[in-house]
Amino acid sequence: MRCMKQMPNMLMAGAAGRNRGKTEFLCRAIRAQSKLRTVIGIKITSFDDADGEVLADQMKSKTYRSIDGDFLVTREEPGADNKDTHRMYSAGAEKVYWLRTRRSALSDGLNNLFQTLETDGLDPLTACLVVESGGSRNFIEPGLFFIIQERDDELKPSCAEVAHWVDRLVNVSGSGWDILPEDLIFENGQWGYKEDAAAIVLSGGDSRRMGQDKSVMPVHGQPMLSNIVEQLTPNFKTVMVSGAKEKYAFAGCRVVEDLEPDRGPLMGLLSTLKESVHELNFVTACDVPDIHMPVVRNMLREIGNYDAVVPVLQDARKQPLFAVYRKSVAKNIEVLMTEDKQSMHALLDTLNVHYVEVDADWYHNINTQEDLDRYEKKRS
Question: pTM for the whole thing?
């Protein structure tokens, strides 16, 4: 399996076909963010090894033929015409780069692009990047990845092969897009947009196997709970933590205390669902340090008429504490509580659940000090 470069600081967009407003969408995102921070624009043009000159003729541009080798990275300059990179400058980008590459050399071309950014004093992993590309999603996991389409578009092959990773298919019509570029957020070094849903973090119980409260264990230089909340905040309209208000005030979001103490995660879920103002609620335990938003967004999209969407890892383990629940599930939990049933799996037995298989490479569950040590080693 190909190893993806994690770049939450990157907004990436491709298009289902030509004339879908992809460049304008990205330029408006640049214009909005450039009022607050330095933004770097990047255009990536890839083509099959044998069709460089054919593509050049189709696009009426001789620049595609100027590649001396498999790829070429250029530092673009401002211009007054309608060239895509000039439009990025006009929108407010501080610097703009253009990578032209044969498709077979895209990975090497991307590495060279990032080396060029570093040479120019930019950190590719922290700079606010706006990237026009679809195929690069094969090698990079950005903070947000959109494919812009007209409704019922048939995706072109280069987009179809990465469509399963899309955070959102953005529909365009005569009145514009169904997501406004100005509503996108760059916060804590990552791109996001707020789902019309709540994110709930269950702060955890006694953490017996860890020997101490997992929610305050240091991850990436901060308490694990803070690390999780920081990832969720740009992506949800509401973020809540289940637990004691005084203990978890440091999380910087709403803390909801259990209606009845010492009754496990099911009571924490019940208490927060009753307080939620959203129909859909993503729930995670406080010991999952990496929130993989493509999986979360897919679960939100897959809810349909189900009560819940629960991922199943490759080893067939169900993950009810990394799942999406409707607010109405609170009624089922109340019944279980009267029967003194406190198991999450007992709850699933009462629901109409949609189980989705997910790639578990990103998933880490920290239960012991050894788990934490392995996680930190893998991330270093």
Answer: 0.78
